[in-house]
Amino acid sequence: MHEMAIAQGILEIALDTAASHGAGKITRVRVLAGELTGVVPEALDFGFNALAAGTIAAGACLAVQVIPLMGRCRDCGQLDNISKYRFICEQCGSSAIDIVSGRELTVESVEVE
Ligand SMILES: [Zn+2]
Question: 70 Cβ partners below 8 Å, 6+ apart?
Answer without folding.
Answer: 79, 80, 81, 82, 99, 100, 101, 102
